Amino acid sequence: MVAPTETQEEIPMGNSKEIQEFAIGSGFNFTGADIDELGASEYTLVTIALDESGSISRFETQIRDMLITAVKACANSPRSDNLLIRVIRFGSQYVRQNGNGIDEIHGFKTLAEIDSNNYPQLAGGGLTPLCDAVYSGVGAMNAYAKQLQDMDFDVNGITFVVTDGGENASTATMQMVKDALAESVTGEVMESHVSVLIGIDTGYAGVKDKLDRFKNEAGMTQFIWAGEATKGKLAKLAAFVSQSVSSTSVALGTGGPSQNISATI
Amino acid sequence: MHVDHNFHIGEQHLQNGMPCQDYALSGMLEGNIAYAIVSDGCSSGGKTDIGARLTALATEQAIRECIRIPHFRSNEAYMAVNDRRNMLLEQFRMTLGLEPEDMLATCLWAIAWGNTVLTNVTGDGTVVVCHELETLTHSFQWSDNVPYYPAYKSTGEDEAFRARHANTPEPLTYIVQSNIPGMGDALDGSMSTYPADVGMKGLWVVPTNTAPDQFPGRLRSIALFSDGIGQIDGIPEESAVQELLAFKSTTGRFVTRRMNRFLKNVKQHGSGPIDDIACAVIAFDPPDQPEGEHHDAHNQTNEGDA
Predict the structure, then answer these.
(1) ipTM for the assembly
(2) Looking at chain B, which residue has its C-alpha nearest residue A150?
Protein backbone atom coordinates (compact mmCIF):
# COMPACT_ATOMS: atom_id res chain seq x y z
CA MET A 1 0.00 0.00 0.00
CA VAL A 2 1.43 3.33 -1.02
CA ALA A 3 0.52 6.53 0.73
CA PRO A 4 1.25 10.13 -0.05
CA THR A 5 4.38 11.09 1.83
CA GLU A 6 4.11 14.84 1.77
CA THR A 7 2.87 17.79 -0.21
CA GLN A 8 5.61 19.64 -1.93
CA GLU A 9 5.95 23.00 -3.50
CA GLU A 10 5.15 23.48 -7.13
CA ILE A 11 7.47 21.45 -9.31
CA PRO A 12 9.27 23.28 -12.09
CA MET A 13 7.16 22.17 -15.06
CA GLY A 14 3.96 24.01 -15.91
CA ASN A 15 1.35 25.78 -13.80
CA SER A 16 0.67 23.01 -11.36
CA LYS A 17 -2.11 22.78 -8.81
CA GLU A 18 -1.32 20.96 -5.61
CA ILE A 19 1.18 18.17 -6.19
CA GLN A 20 1.55 15.18 -3.91
CA GLU A 21 4.66 13.09 -3.49
CA PHE A 22 4.34 9.33 -3.26
CA ALA A 23 6.74 6.54 -2.42
CA ILE A 24 6.81 3.37 -4.51
CA GLY A 25 9.33 1.56 -2.35
CA SER A 26 13.06 0.75 -2.53
CA GLY A 27 13.84 4.46 -2.63
CA PHE A 28 11.74 5.21 -5.71
CA ASN A 29 9.35 8.16 -5.46
CA PHE A 30 7.09 10.05 -7.79
CA THR A 31 4.73 12.98 -7.79
CA GLY A 32 1.19 13.41 -9.05
CA ALA A 33 -1.68 15.85 -9.06
CA ASP A 34 -3.58 15.95 -5.79
CA ILE A 35 -6.29 13.35 -6.33
CA ASP A 36 -8.78 15.36 -4.27
CA GLU A 37 -8.52 18.10 -6.89
CA LEU A 38 -9.15 15.91 -9.93
CA GLY A 39 -12.60 16.44 -11.37
CA ALA A 40 -13.17 13.97 -14.21
CA SER A 41 -14.65 10.51 -13.76
CA GLU A 42 -11.83 8.60 -15.45
CA TYR A 43 -8.21 9.02 -16.43
CA THR A 44 -5.62 7.41 -18.65
CA LEU A 45 -2.19 7.48 -17.04
CA VAL A 46 0.72 7.98 -19.42
CA THR A 47 4.40 7.66 -18.59
CA ILE A 48 7.18 8.51 -21.00
CA ALA A 49 10.66 7.47 -19.90
CA LEU A 50 13.62 8.77 -21.91
CA ASP A 51 17.12 7.36 -21.96
CA GLU A 52 19.67 10.01 -21.09
CA SER A 53 22.73 7.79 -21.04
CA GLY A 54 25.97 8.83 -22.71
CA SER A 55 25.18 7.08 -25.99
CA ILE A 56 22.35 9.49 -26.87
CA SER A 57 24.74 12.43 -26.73
CA ARG A 58 24.54 13.27 -30.41
CA PHE A 59 20.73 13.01 -30.45
CA GLU A 60 19.71 14.97 -27.37
CA THR A 61 17.95 17.75 -29.22
CA GLN A 62 16.07 15.40 -31.56
CA ILE A 63 14.88 13.24 -28.68
CA ARG A 64 13.72 16.28 -26.72
CA ASP A 65 11.91 17.54 -29.81
CA MET A 66 10.27 14.13 -30.16
CA LEU A 67 9.07 14.35 -26.56
CA ILE A 68 7.65 17.83 -27.02
CA THR A 69 5.90 16.84 -30.24
CA ALA A 70 4.44 13.71 -28.69
CA VAL A 71 3.09 15.48 -25.62
CA LYS A 72 1.69 18.36 -27.64
CA ALA A 73 0.02 15.92 -30.02
CA CYS A 74 -1.78 14.29 -27.10
CA ALA A 75 -3.93 17.43 -27.09
CA ASN A 76 -5.51 16.09 -30.28
CA SER A 77 -6.84 13.07 -28.44
CA PRO A 78 -10.63 13.12 -28.16
CA ARG A 79 -10.14 12.54 -24.46
CA SER A 80 -7.24 14.88 -23.91
CA ASP A 81 -8.82 16.24 -20.73
CA ASN A 82 -8.67 12.77 -19.26
CA LEU A 83 -4.92 12.25 -19.56
CA LEU A 84 -2.45 12.40 -16.69
CA ILE A 85 1.09 12.41 -18.05
CA ARG A 86 4.37 11.75 -16.27
CA VAL A 87 7.77 12.24 -17.92
CA ILE A 88 11.03 10.85 -16.53
CA ARG A 89 14.57 10.52 -17.82
CA PHE A 90 17.03 7.89 -16.79
CA GLY A 91 20.80 7.61 -16.62
CA SER A 92 23.29 6.55 -13.98
CA GLN A 93 24.23 10.20 -13.44
CA TYR A 94 21.08 10.48 -11.30
CA VAL A 95 22.09 7.73 -8.89
CA ARG A 96 23.91 10.12 -6.56
CA GLN A 97 20.89 12.42 -6.57
CA ASN A 98 18.08 9.92 -5.90
CA GLY A 99 19.66 6.63 -5.02
CA ASN A 100 18.48 5.37 -8.38
CA GLY A 101 18.92 6.36 -11.97
CA ILE A 102 15.71 8.34 -12.39
CA ASP A 103 15.01 12.03 -12.72
CA GLU A 104 11.34 12.96 -12.82
CA ILE A 105 10.83 15.86 -15.21
CA HIS A 106 7.24 16.08 -14.00
CA GLY A 107 4.83 13.79 -12.24
CA PHE A 108 1.29 12.85 -13.32
CA LYS A 109 -0.31 16.06 -14.53
CA THR A 110 -3.12 17.04 -16.83
CA LEU A 111 -2.13 18.31 -20.25
CA ALA A 112 -3.41 21.76 -19.36
CA GLU A 113 -0.79 21.96 -16.64
CA ILE A 114 2.12 20.89 -18.80
CA ASP A 115 4.25 23.43 -20.62
CA SER A 116 6.21 21.10 -22.86
CA ASN A 117 8.24 23.98 -24.30
CA ASN A 118 9.94 24.16 -20.94
CA TYR A 119 11.12 20.58 -21.01
CA PRO A 120 14.81 20.59 -20.07
CA GLN A 121 17.55 20.00 -22.57
CA LEU A 122 18.78 16.42 -22.34
CA ALA A 123 22.45 15.89 -21.56
CA GLY A 124 23.61 12.37 -22.29
CA GLY A 125 25.94 10.90 -19.70
CA GLY A 126 26.38 7.79 -17.64
CA LEU A 127 25.14 4.25 -18.06
CA THR A 128 21.66 2.84 -18.77
CA PRO A 129 19.53 1.95 -15.71
CA LEU A 130 16.78 0.38 -17.81
CA CYS A 131 15.31 -1.64 -14.95
CA ASP A 132 15.07 1.53 -12.88
CA ALA A 133 13.24 3.24 -15.74
CA VAL A 134 10.65 0.49 -16.16
CA TYR A 135 10.26 -0.03 -12.43
CA SER A 136 9.78 3.68 -11.80
CA GLY A 137 7.44 4.03 -14.77
CA VAL A 138 5.21 1.07 -14.02
CA GLY A 139 5.57 1.12 -10.23
CA ALA A 140 4.51 4.74 -10.04
CA MET A 141 1.63 4.06 -12.37
CA ASN A 142 0.45 1.13 -10.25
CA ALA A 143 0.62 3.17 -7.08
CA TYR A 144 -1.14 6.22 -8.48
CA ALA A 145 -3.76 4.13 -10.27
CA LYS A 146 -4.56 2.32 -7.04
CA GLN A 147 -5.12 5.63 -5.29
CA LEU A 148 -7.35 6.81 -8.12
CA GLN A 149 -9.31 3.55 -8.11
CA ASP A 150 -9.86 3.88 -4.40
CA MET A 151 -11.39 7.29 -5.04
CA ASP A 152 -13.84 5.84 -7.63
CA PHE A 153 -11.95 6.99 -10.74
CA ASP A 154 -11.77 4.53 -13.63
CA VAL A 155 -8.15 4.22 -14.76
CA ASN A 156 -6.03 2.62 -17.45
CA GLY A 157 -2.47 3.29 -18.49
CA ILE A 158 0.29 3.16 -21.05
CA THR A 159 4.03 3.34 -20.43
CA PHE A 160 6.66 4.14 -23.04
CA VAL A 161 10.34 3.52 -22.35
CA VAL A 162 12.58 4.93 -25.06
CA THR A 163 16.18 3.72 -25.02
CA ASP A 164 19.19 3.04 -27.21
CA GLY A 165 20.81 0.54 -24.94
CA GLY A 166 20.36 -2.44 -22.67
CA GLU A 167 20.34 -2.59 -18.90
CA ASN A 168 23.69 -2.00 -17.21
CA ALA A 169 23.30 0.24 -14.19
CA SER A 170 20.08 -0.24 -12.21
CA THR A 171 19.21 -0.26 -8.56
CA ALA A 172 15.94 -2.05 -9.27
CA THR A 173 16.23 -5.76 -10.01
CA MET A 174 14.65 -7.57 -12.93
CA GLN A 175 12.38 -9.30 -10.42
CA MET A 176 11.10 -5.94 -9.20
CA VAL A 177 10.39 -4.97 -12.79
CA LYS A 178 8.60 -8.24 -13.48
CA ASP A 179 6.49 -7.92 -10.35
CA ALA A 180 5.48 -4.34 -11.16
CA LEU A 181 4.56 -5.25 -14.72
CA ALA A 182 2.63 -8.32 -13.58
CA GLU A 183 0.69 -6.26 -11.05
CA SER A 184 -0.15 -3.67 -13.68
CA VAL A 185 -2.11 -6.15 -15.80
CA THR A 186 -4.05 -7.97 -13.08
CA GLY A 187 -6.98 -5.61 -13.55
CA GLU A 188 -6.87 -4.83 -9.85
CA VAL A 189 -4.97 -1.57 -9.92
CA MET A 190 -6.16 -0.36 -13.30
CA GLU A 191 -8.49 -1.57 -16.00
CA SER A 192 -5.63 -2.27 -18.42
CA HIS A 193 -2.01 -1.35 -18.90
CA VAL A 194 0.20 -1.47 -21.98
CA SER A 195 3.97 -1.18 -21.65
CA VAL A 196 5.96 -0.38 -24.75
CA LEU A 197 9.75 -0.63 -24.99
CA ILE A 198 11.01 1.48 -27.88
CA GLY A 199 14.51 0.97 -29.18
CA ILE A 200 16.30 3.64 -31.15
CA ASP A 201 19.47 3.04 -33.09
CA THR A 202 22.31 5.36 -32.11
CA GLY A 203 24.95 3.18 -33.69
CA TYR A 204 25.55 0.42 -31.15
CA ALA A 205 25.39 -3.10 -32.50
CA GLY A 206 23.24 -5.75 -30.91
CA VAL A 207 20.94 -3.38 -29.08
CA LYS A 208 17.83 -4.49 -30.92
CA ASP A 209 18.21 -8.13 -29.86
CA LYS A 210 19.17 -7.14 -26.35
CA LEU A 211 16.06 -5.02 -25.93
CA ASP A 212 13.85 -7.69 -27.43
CA ARG A 213 15.15 -10.12 -24.81
CA PHE A 214 14.63 -7.53 -22.07
CA LYS A 215 11.01 -7.04 -23.15
CA ASN A 216 10.37 -10.78 -23.03
CA GLU A 217 12.11 -11.37 -19.73
CA ALA A 218 10.43 -8.44 -18.01
CA GLY A 219 7.02 -9.20 -19.44
CA MET A 220 6.44 -5.93 -21.24
CA THR A 221 3.58 -5.81 -23.71
CA GLN A 222 5.43 -4.73 -26.80
CA PHE A 223 8.88 -4.01 -28.22
CA ILE A 224 9.20 -1.66 -31.13
CA TRP A 225 12.39 -0.95 -32.99
CA ALA A 226 12.19 2.63 -34.21
CA GLY A 227 15.40 2.43 -36.23
CA GLU A 228 17.91 5.18 -36.61
CA ALA A 229 17.47 8.23 -34.42
CA THR A 230 16.95 10.52 -37.38
CA LYS A 231 14.67 13.51 -37.32
CA GLY A 232 12.17 11.75 -39.60
CA LYS A 233 12.13 8.53 -37.55
CA LEU A 234 11.76 10.41 -34.30
CA ALA A 235 8.87 12.39 -35.75
CA LYS A 236 7.19 9.08 -36.54
CA LEU A 237 7.95 7.92 -33.03
CA ALA A 238 6.26 11.02 -31.62
CA ALA A 239 3.19 10.30 -33.74
CA PHE A 240 3.19 6.69 -32.57
CA VAL A 241 3.29 7.76 -28.94
CA SER A 242 0.46 10.27 -29.24
CA GLN A 243 -1.71 7.90 -31.31
CA SER A 244 -1.16 5.08 -28.84
CA VAL A 245 -2.10 7.39 -25.98
CA SER A 246 -5.23 8.42 -27.82
CA SER A 247 -6.36 4.87 -28.54
CA THR A 248 -5.59 3.78 -24.98
CA SER A 249 -7.67 6.63 -23.66
CA VAL A 250 -10.57 5.78 -25.94
CA ALA A 251 -10.39 2.14 -24.79
CA LEU A 252 -10.98 3.09 -21.16
CA GLY A 253 -14.26 1.61 -20.05
CA THR A 254 -14.19 -1.26 -22.51
CA GLY A 255 -12.56 -3.53 -19.95
CA GLY A 256 -9.39 -4.22 -21.92
CA PRO A 257 -6.40 -2.56 -23.55
CA SER A 258 -6.63 -0.79 -26.87
CA GLN A 259 -6.42 -3.09 -29.86
CA ASN A 260 -5.28 -0.23 -32.05
CA ILE A 261 -1.71 0.28 -30.93
CA SER A 262 0.49 -0.16 -33.95
CA ALA A 263 3.06 -2.97 -33.95
CA THR A 264 5.51 -0.87 -35.91
CA ILE A 265 6.51 2.74 -36.31
CA MET B 1 -21.40 23.80 -2.63
CA HIS B 2 -20.71 21.18 -5.26
CA VAL B 3 -23.15 19.80 -7.82
CA ASP B 4 -23.11 16.91 -10.24
CA HIS B 5 -25.54 14.54 -11.89
CA ASN B 6 -25.62 11.29 -13.81
CA PHE B 7 -28.13 9.09 -15.59
CA HIS B 8 -27.82 5.55 -16.87
CA ILE B 9 -29.89 3.30 -19.07
CA GLY B 10 -31.62 0.36 -17.42
CA GLU B 11 -31.43 -3.24 -18.52
CA GLN B 12 -35.00 -3.32 -19.89
CA HIS B 13 -34.45 -0.41 -22.25
CA LEU B 14 -31.01 -1.66 -23.20
CA GLN B 15 -32.29 -5.11 -24.12
CA ASN B 16 -35.21 -3.69 -26.09
CA GLY B 17 -33.12 -1.20 -28.04
CA MET B 18 -34.85 1.76 -26.46
CA PRO B 19 -33.21 4.99 -25.32
CA CYS B 20 -32.64 5.98 -21.72
CA GLN B 21 -35.70 7.93 -20.64
CA ASP B 22 -34.17 9.43 -17.52
CA TYR B 23 -32.29 12.69 -17.51
CA ALA B 24 -30.58 14.86 -14.93
CA LEU B 25 -28.99 18.28 -14.72
CA SER B 26 -27.17 20.31 -12.10
CA GLY B 27 -25.29 23.56 -11.92
CA MET B 28 -24.47 26.78 -10.13
CA LEU B 29 -26.18 30.09 -10.84
CA GLU B 30 -25.37 33.68 -9.99
CA GLY B 31 -25.55 34.39 -6.29
CA ASN B 32 -24.04 31.00 -5.44
CA ILE B 33 -27.35 29.24 -6.01
CA ALA B 34 -27.01 25.52 -6.64
CA TYR B 35 -29.63 23.50 -8.46
CA ALA B 36 -30.24 19.85 -9.24
CA ILE B 37 -32.91 18.37 -11.49
CA VAL B 38 -34.04 14.83 -12.32
CA SER B 39 -36.68 13.82 -14.84
CA ASP B 40 -37.99 10.36 -15.67
CA GLY B 41 -39.85 9.80 -18.94
CA CYS B 42 -42.94 7.60 -18.96
CA SER B 43 -42.17 4.16 -20.41
CA SER B 44 -45.57 3.86 -22.04
CA GLY B 45 -45.56 7.38 -23.46
CA GLY B 46 -44.16 8.56 -26.75
CA LYS B 47 -40.68 9.94 -27.27
CA THR B 48 -40.32 10.53 -23.56
CA ASP B 49 -36.53 10.44 -23.67
CA ILE B 50 -36.95 13.82 -25.34
CA GLY B 51 -39.74 14.75 -22.95
CA ALA B 52 -37.54 14.04 -19.94
CA ARG B 53 -34.75 16.16 -21.35
CA LEU B 54 -37.08 19.01 -22.22
CA THR B 55 -38.67 18.83 -18.78
CA ALA B 56 -35.27 19.11 -17.12
CA LEU B 57 -34.17 21.90 -19.45
CA ALA B 58 -37.43 23.79 -18.96
CA THR B 59 -37.00 23.50 -15.20
CA GLU B 60 -33.42 24.72 -15.40
CA GLN B 61 -34.50 27.71 -17.45
CA ALA B 62 -37.41 28.39 -15.08
CA ILE B 63 -35.10 28.38 -12.07
CA ARG B 64 -32.67 30.64 -13.90
CA GLU B 65 -35.48 33.11 -14.62
CA CYS B 66 -37.22 32.90 -11.27
CA ILE B 67 -34.16 33.62 -9.15
CA ARG B 68 -34.22 37.08 -10.70
CA ILE B 69 -37.67 37.73 -9.24
CA PRO B 70 -37.39 40.36 -6.49
CA HIS B 71 -37.86 38.75 -3.10
CA PHE B 72 -37.37 35.31 -4.59
CA ARG B 73 -37.41 33.84 -1.12
CA SER B 74 -41.20 33.66 -0.99
CA ASN B 75 -43.72 30.89 -1.49
CA GLU B 76 -45.12 32.53 -4.59
CA ALA B 77 -41.71 32.72 -6.20
CA TYR B 78 -41.00 29.09 -5.48
CA MET B 79 -44.29 28.12 -7.07
CA ALA B 80 -43.41 30.32 -10.02
CA VAL B 81 -40.69 27.83 -10.96
CA ASN B 82 -43.23 25.12 -11.64
CA ASP B 83 -45.58 27.49 -13.47
CA ARG B 84 -42.79 28.83 -15.66
CA ARG B 85 -41.50 25.31 -16.29
CA ASN B 86 -44.93 24.21 -17.50
CA MET B 87 -45.20 27.19 -19.84
CA LEU B 88 -41.76 26.57 -21.29
CA LEU B 89 -42.48 22.89 -21.68
CA GLU B 90 -45.53 23.60 -23.79
CA GLN B 91 -43.57 26.13 -25.85
CA PHE B 92 -40.88 23.54 -26.50
CA ARG B 93 -43.47 20.95 -27.47
CA MET B 94 -45.19 23.25 -29.91
CA THR B 95 -41.92 24.47 -31.42
CA LEU B 96 -40.66 20.94 -31.99
CA GLY B 97 -43.99 19.56 -33.15
CA LEU B 98 -44.06 16.93 -30.43
CA GLU B 99 -47.17 15.12 -29.24
CA PRO B 100 -48.48 15.48 -25.68
CA GLU B 101 -47.51 11.87 -24.91
CA ASP B 102 -43.91 12.67 -25.84
CA MET B 103 -43.73 15.08 -22.91
CA LEU B 104 -44.77 12.70 -20.15
CA ALA B 105 -41.95 12.92 -17.64
CA THR B 106 -41.67 13.45 -13.90
CA CYS B 107 -39.77 16.36 -12.43
CA LEU B 108 -37.76 16.61 -9.23
CA TRP B 109 -35.78 19.75 -8.59
CA ALA B 110 -33.81 21.24 -5.75
CA ILE B 111 -32.21 24.60 -5.17
CA ALA B 112 -29.92 25.72 -2.37
CA TRP B 113 -28.43 29.03 -1.36
CA GLY B 114 -27.24 30.43 1.94
CA ASN B 115 -28.95 28.38 4.60
CA THR B 116 -31.93 27.53 2.44
CA VAL B 117 -32.60 24.28 0.63
CA LEU B 118 -35.85 23.32 -0.99
CA THR B 119 -36.91 20.47 -3.15
CA ASN B 120 -40.01 19.94 -5.24
CA VAL B 121 -41.36 16.66 -6.56
CA THR B 122 -43.94 16.40 -9.33
CA GLY B 123 -44.54 12.76 -10.12
CA ASP B 124 -42.61 10.00 -8.42
CA GLY B 125 -39.03 9.55 -7.27
CA THR B 126 -36.89 9.88 -4.20
CA VAL B 127 -35.33 12.78 -2.36
CA VAL B 128 -32.53 11.94 0.03
CA VAL B 129 -31.51 14.39 2.72
CA CYS B 130 -28.15 13.34 4.08
CA HIS B 131 -27.00 14.75 7.42
CA GLU B 132 -23.84 13.92 9.31
CA LEU B 133 -25.73 11.62 11.66
CA GLU B 134 -28.84 10.58 9.76
CA THR B 135 -30.00 10.01 6.23
CA LEU B 136 -33.67 10.56 5.47
CA THR B 137 -35.10 9.01 2.33
CA HIS B 138 -38.30 10.67 1.07
CA SER B 139 -40.04 8.46 -1.47
CA PHE B 140 -43.01 9.51 -3.58
CA GLN B 141 -45.13 6.83 -5.27
CA TRP B 142 -48.46 6.99 -7.08
CA SER B 143 -50.93 4.13 -6.98
CA ASP B 144 -50.91 1.77 -9.97
CA ASN B 145 -47.55 3.38 -10.88
CA VAL B 146 -49.46 6.18 -12.62
CA PRO B 147 -47.71 9.39 -11.55
CA TYR B 148 -48.71 12.92 -12.38
CA TYR B 149 -46.60 14.54 -15.10
CA PRO B 150 -46.11 18.32 -15.36
CA ALA B 151 -47.05 18.21 -19.06
CA TYR B 152 -50.61 17.19 -18.17
CA LYS B 153 -51.36 20.72 -17.05
CA SER B 154 -50.57 22.49 -20.28
CA THR B 155 -52.02 19.77 -22.49
CA GLY B 156 -55.35 19.76 -20.64
CA GLU B 157 -55.01 16.25 -19.23
CA ASP B 158 -55.57 17.11 -15.57
CA GLU B 159 -59.20 15.96 -15.55
CA ALA B 160 -58.33 12.70 -17.23
CA PHE B 161 -55.63 12.17 -14.62
CA ARG B 162 -58.07 12.78 -11.77
CA ALA B 163 -60.47 10.35 -13.39
CA ARG B 164 -57.73 7.74 -13.65
CA HIS B 165 -57.38 7.85 -9.86
CA ALA B 166 -61.08 8.40 -9.14
CA ASN B 167 -61.32 5.18 -7.20
CA THR B 168 -58.36 5.96 -4.99
CA PRO B 169 -59.04 8.98 -2.76
CA GLU B 170 -55.38 9.40 -1.87
CA PRO B 171 -53.30 7.92 -4.65
CA LEU B 172 -50.02 9.57 -3.69
CA THR B 173 -48.00 7.78 -1.02
CA TYR B 174 -45.19 9.60 0.69
CA ILE B 175 -42.76 7.58 2.79
CA VAL B 176 -39.99 9.00 4.92
CA GLN B 177 -37.44 6.55 6.21
CA SER B 178 -34.42 7.10 8.38
CA ASN B 179 -31.32 4.98 8.25
CA ILE B 180 -31.31 4.86 12.04
CA PRO B 181 -33.17 2.03 13.80
CA GLY B 182 -36.04 3.06 16.03
CA MET B 183 -38.22 0.95 18.29
CA GLY B 184 -37.75 -2.80 17.88
CA ASP B 185 -34.75 -2.28 15.60
CA ALA B 186 -37.04 -1.33 12.71
CA LEU B 187 -35.84 1.72 10.82
CA ASP B 188 -37.57 4.92 11.84
CA GLY B 189 -40.03 6.18 9.30
CA SER B 190 -43.47 7.45 8.47
CA MET B 191 -45.99 7.08 5.68
CA SER B 192 -48.66 9.51 4.52
CA THR B 193 -51.06 9.55 1.62
CA TYR B 194 -52.38 12.52 -0.31
CA PRO B 195 -55.24 13.28 -2.70
CA ALA B 196 -54.37 13.60 -6.36
CA ASP B 197 -54.78 17.38 -6.38
CA VAL B 198 -52.12 17.82 -3.72
CA GLY B 199 -49.60 15.79 -5.66
CA MET B 200 -50.48 17.57 -8.88
CA LYS B 201 -49.19 20.83 -7.40
CA GLY B 202 -45.87 19.25 -6.54
CA LEU B 203 -44.78 18.29 -3.05
CA TRP B 204 -42.00 20.02 -1.17
CA VAL B 205 -39.21 18.64 0.96
CA VAL B 206 -37.78 21.56 2.88
CA PRO B 207 -34.89 21.11 5.30
CA THR B 208 -34.89 23.80 7.99
CA ASN B 209 -32.06 25.01 10.15
CA THR B 210 -31.18 23.77 13.59
CA ALA B 211 -28.15 24.49 15.71
CA PRO B 212 -25.00 22.91 14.27
CA ASP B 213 -24.33 20.78 17.34
CA GLN B 214 -27.81 19.27 17.44
CA PHE B 215 -29.00 16.00 15.97
CA PRO B 216 -29.01 15.11 13.07
CA GLY B 217 -25.91 17.20 12.44
CA ARG B 218 -24.69 19.18 9.49
CA LEU B 219 -26.43 18.74 6.18
CA ARG B 220 -24.00 16.98 3.84
CA SER B 221 -26.00 16.59 0.66
CA ILE B 222 -29.38 16.63 -1.04
CA ALA B 223 -29.86 13.97 -3.68
CA LEU B 224 -32.65 13.46 -6.18
CA PHE B 225 -33.27 10.04 -7.72
CA SER B 226 -35.67 8.77 -10.32
CA ASP B 227 -37.68 5.71 -9.31
CA GLY B 228 -34.99 3.53 -10.88
CA ILE B 229 -33.16 3.71 -7.54
CA GLY B 230 -35.65 1.15 -6.26
CA GLN B 231 -35.21 -1.22 -9.18
CA ILE B 232 -31.62 -2.39 -9.06
CA ASP B 233 -31.24 -6.13 -9.32
CA GLY B 234 -30.49 -7.61 -5.92
CA ILE B 235 -29.99 -4.27 -4.16
CA PRO B 236 -32.62 -2.83 -1.80
CA GLU B 237 -33.32 0.87 -2.29
CA GLU B 238 -31.87 1.78 1.12
CA SER B 239 -28.57 0.10 0.27
CA ALA B 240 -28.44 1.65 -3.17
CA VAL B 241 -28.99 5.11 -1.69
CA GLN B 242 -26.27 4.63 0.91
CA GLU B 243 -23.79 3.36 -1.65
CA LEU B 244 -24.54 6.02 -4.23
CA LEU B 245 -24.07 8.80 -1.70
CA ALA B 246 -20.79 7.44 -0.31
CA PHE B 247 -18.75 10.01 -2.21
CA LYS B 248 -14.98 9.72 -1.86
CA SER B 249 -14.65 13.37 -2.79
CA THR B 250 -16.99 16.07 -4.08
CA THR B 251 -14.73 17.50 -6.76
CA GLY B 252 -15.90 17.71 -10.36
CA ARG B 253 -17.91 14.74 -11.57
CA PHE B 254 -18.29 13.15 -8.17
CA VAL B 255 -21.75 11.72 -8.79
CA THR B 256 -20.64 10.21 -12.08
CA ARG B 257 -17.63 8.56 -10.46
CA ARG B 258 -19.72 7.06 -7.67
CA MET B 259 -22.48 5.94 -10.05
CA ASN B 260 -20.00 4.33 -12.44
CA ARG B 261 -18.28 2.42 -9.66
CA PHE B 262 -21.59 1.42 -8.08
CA LEU B 263 -22.95 0.10 -11.37
CA LYS B 264 -19.72 -1.76 -12.10
CA ASN B 265 -19.97 -3.43 -8.70
CA VAL B 266 -23.65 -4.34 -8.87
CA LYS B 267 -23.31 -5.76 -12.37
CA GLN B 268 -20.84 -8.30 -11.01
CA HIS B 269 -23.64 -9.83 -8.97
CA GLY B 270 -26.75 -9.21 -11.07
CA SER B 271 -28.26 -7.36 -13.98
CA GLY B 272 -27.71 -3.93 -12.49
CA PRO B 273 -30.44 -1.33 -12.89
CA ILE B 274 -33.61 -2.83 -14.35
CA ASP B 275 -35.10 0.60 -15.02
CA ASP B 276 -33.21 3.73 -16.07
CA ILE B 277 -31.68 5.56 -13.15
CA ALA B 278 -30.93 9.25 -12.74
CA CYS B 279 -29.36 11.13 -9.88
CA ALA B 280 -28.52 14.78 -9.20
CA VAL B 281 -26.81 15.98 -6.05
CA ILE B 282 -26.04 19.20 -4.22
CA ALA B 283 -23.22 18.58 -1.74
CA PHE B 284 -22.36 21.05 0.97
CA ASP B 285 -18.85 21.92 2.07
CA PRO B 286 -17.76 21.05 5.57
CA PRO B 287 -17.72 24.08 7.86
CA ASP B 288 -13.94 24.43 7.76
CA GLN B 289 -13.97 25.15 4.04
CA PRO B 290 -14.09 28.90 3.40
CA GLU B 291 -16.66 28.81 0.61
CA GLY B 292 -18.86 26.46 2.64
CA GLU B 293 -22.51 26.85 3.28
CA HIS B 294 -23.78 25.77 6.65
CA HIS B 295 -26.96 23.74 6.63
CA ASP B 296 -28.40 21.90 9.57
CA ALA B 297 -31.88 20.77 9.31
CA HIS B 298 -34.85 18.76 10.24
CA ASN B 299 -36.92 17.87 7.27
CA GLN B 300 -40.50 18.67 6.75
CA THR B 301 -42.83 18.29 3.86
CA ASN B 302 -45.81 20.43 3.14
CA GLU B 303 -48.50 20.33 0.59
CA GLY B 304 -47.66 22.47 -2.39
CA ASP B 305 -46.30 25.23 -0.23
CA ALA B 306 -42.82 26.19 0.88
Answers:
(1) 0.83
(2) B248
